[in-house]
């Protein structure tokens, strides 16, 4: 096939022959490195192969060849078109008949008039097709015997050859719809007429959208047929060519198969790893995988280790078959106790921290000591500070003897505000071994457990080696079961939401296991990915614990301490100020006639001696102090 423009190829294409493989013979490039405009492919290189899978009519441009005026028609346009044999019109019927006989064209011929024709028998509307069957004499006048097809019946008319037009010759056949005209190759670029337009003639230029597959393009490529590119049909010589179409794991999950699906990794998403598993290093470009389908069940549990300085985090599949035993739960606040209590399941705890009732700002709240046994009854309200109702936890204080059938009559009922920060440990005597499904069905999360028997299908199960685990959250997320081509026995589960690999379908992989797949049911998570999961909207909807009110006593105590500090600082400043001496005149000083060296020695001697401390009080008489100093000074002299 010789290269043709894409528009000509699409217009002559038979939709029943799809798909067709085309080679681009002359590429097109739009300025500005624009690769796609409005979702359409706008850059094709010479030599590219495209596999056309579908052609869709977008619109039809209708043009008046005389004036160049254009308008757009929708694909569902309801008008009808008739084909003109040429651009020439005839002024009378005689000219039309003469032109037909000169071209050796036999009667009958089809024609129409662009003006209304009025006869005694009938009025012929403008642009109404007529069939001229013969020329004969009618009532002494040479007339053209014409047939008007009105649909229900055919009307015979005798029009004189002197009847004025203009008249246009038409191709034989009834008027056609828009799609019928576009599907007829003989009417390509033909002059048409349509009663819906005031133009004598028009041409139709269809515009299509070509959907095609290209190498390494994940989505269907959409190419406008008006793109100025030449193509060549190479379908016959390209039967062996396989177009690689990238596929995301999320897309494979959404379309639901078919599974198993043999694939090859084209691209691995960038970012920090989510799992600390050995199979994660195998997910490299070029690695072949087999997608076996959706993992069942679809839920997972987040768990963290207990009893370690640096906790480790795991995601446990709902298909985990290990055995678990409950461990006593620890509750830091009364709010946690209320959240853990369930109707019909008594919750008994032992306090691990002393607390006086005065610390709770209300004498109605009980004091707790280490070792006190409590049974949670429910929630309530009590009068707190500032005479406001606050939410409280209602508990029953139990005796020292523990037992399931312990009588609680005449026991003390105590109230604890929900913001109370103490320490409680669950009193537990349950030694049963639970499966993961039974445990989570009977008890609410979070739940403290100890794995006492590992999963028999998972020999390297790490959970039994830890002294305790806390099952924290339940996640409902679809996973895909995947195995490696290099080692079909290594099966694992990938969440496409957080590890969306780009793969391509390949031929079926040999050697895949036919029985149940040995899938790992425990995956260790990185710390960053663990906290990312805890920030999911399902977890963010949980209500935070209540904030404790500001302590009134503590604020008053701080104010009192600030006042005392102010008084002390003022007293210290007064002690540090030197005593003021009165100004002495020269007349009051005694005359010194002797040697002053003895005086200097005596004054130094008195300074070295210990002077008795005089307490400074607010009522002390300053004048008396001055007189005493003057007396001592005179004695010294």
From TrEMBL:
Any Pfam family the entry gives: CABIT
Domain CABIT: 18-237, 259-508
UniProt feature, compositional bias: Polar residues: 591-600
Classification via InterPro entries: CABIT_dom, THEMIS
Residue segments, region Disordered: 539-625
Family from the record: Belongs to the themis family.
Protein name: CABIT domain-containing protein
Organism: Rangifer tarandus platyrhynchus (Svalbard reindeer)
């Amino acid at each position: 096939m010789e290269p043709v423009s894409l528009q000509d190829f699409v217009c002559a294409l038979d939709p029943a022959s799809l798909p067709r493989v085309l080679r681009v013979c002359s590429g097109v490039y739009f300025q500005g490195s624009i690769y796609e405009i409005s979702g359409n492919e706008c850059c094709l290189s010479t030599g590219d192969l495209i596999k056309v899978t579908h052609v869709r009519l977008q619109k039809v441009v209708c043009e008046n060849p005389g004036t160049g005026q254009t308008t757009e028609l929708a694909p569902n346009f309801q008008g009808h078109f008739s084909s003109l044999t040429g651009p020439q019109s005839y002024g009378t019927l005689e000219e039309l008949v003469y032109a037909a006989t000169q071209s050796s064209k036999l009667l009958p011929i089809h024609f129409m008039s662009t003006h209304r024709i009025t006869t005694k028998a009938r009025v012929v509307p403008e642009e109404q097709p007529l069939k001229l069957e013969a020329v004969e004499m009618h009532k002494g006048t040479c007339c053209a015997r014409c047939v008007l097809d009105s649909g229900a019946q055919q009307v015979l008319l005798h029009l004189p050859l002197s009847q004025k037009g203009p008249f246009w010759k038409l191709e034989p056949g009834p008027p056609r719809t828009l799609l019928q005209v576009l599907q007829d190759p003989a009417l390509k670029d033909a002059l048409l007429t349509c009663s819906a337009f005031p133009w004598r003639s028009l041409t139709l230029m269809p515009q299509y959208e070509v959907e095609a597959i290209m190498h390494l393009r994940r989505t269907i490529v959409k190419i406008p047929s008006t793109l100025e590119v030449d193509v060549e049909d190479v379908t016959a010589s390209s039967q062996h060519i396989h177009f690689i179409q990238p596929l995301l794991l999320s897309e494979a999950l959404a379309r639901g198969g078919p599974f198993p699906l043999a694939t090859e990794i084209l691209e691995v998403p960038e970012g920090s790893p989510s799992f600390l598993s050995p199979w994660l290093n195998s997910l490299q470009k070029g690695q072949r995988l087999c997608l076996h389908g959706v993992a069942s069940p679809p839920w997972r549990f987040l768990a963290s280790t207990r009893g370690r300085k640096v906790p480790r985090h795991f995601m446990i599949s709902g298909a985990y078959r290990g055995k678990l035993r409950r461990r006593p739960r620890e509750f830091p606040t009364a709010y946690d106790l209320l959240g853990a209590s369930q109707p019909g399941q008594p919750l008994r705890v032992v306090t691990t921290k002393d607390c006086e009732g005065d610390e709770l700002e209300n004498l109605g709240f009980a004091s707790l000591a280490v070792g006190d046994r409590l049974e949670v009854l429910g929630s309530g309200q009590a009068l707190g500070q500032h005479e406001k109702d606050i939410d409280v936890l209602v508990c029953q204080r139990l005796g020292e003897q523990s037992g399931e059938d312990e009588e609680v009559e005449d026991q003390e009922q105590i109230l604890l505000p929900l913001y109370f920060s103490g320490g409680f440990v669950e009193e537990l005597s349950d030694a049963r071994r639970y499966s993961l499904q039974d445990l989570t069905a009977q008890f609410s999360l979070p739940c403290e457990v100890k794995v006492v028997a590992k999963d028999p299908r998972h020999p390297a199960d790490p959970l039994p080696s830890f002294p305790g685990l806390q099952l924290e959250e339940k996640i409902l997320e679809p996973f895909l079961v995947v195995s490696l081509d290099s080692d079909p026995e290594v099966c694992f589960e990938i969440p496409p939401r957080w590890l969306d690999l780009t793969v391509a379908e390949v031929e079926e992989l040999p050697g895949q296991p036919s029985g149940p797949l040995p899938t790992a049911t425990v995956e260790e998570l990185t710390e960053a990915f663990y906290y990312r999961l805890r920030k999911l909207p399902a977890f963010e909807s949980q209500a935070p614990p209540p904030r404790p009110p500001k302590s009134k006593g503590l604020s008053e105590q701080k104010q009192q301490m600030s006042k005392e500090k102010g008084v002390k600082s003022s007293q210290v400043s007064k002690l540090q100020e030197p005593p003021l001496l009165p100004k002495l005149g020269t007349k009051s000083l005694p005359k010194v006639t002797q040697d002053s060296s003895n005086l200097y020695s005596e004054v130094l001697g008195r300074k070295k001696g210990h002077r008795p401390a005089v307490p400074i009080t607010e009522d002390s008489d300053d004048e008396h102090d001055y007189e005493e100093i003057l007396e001592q000074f005179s004695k010294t002299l």
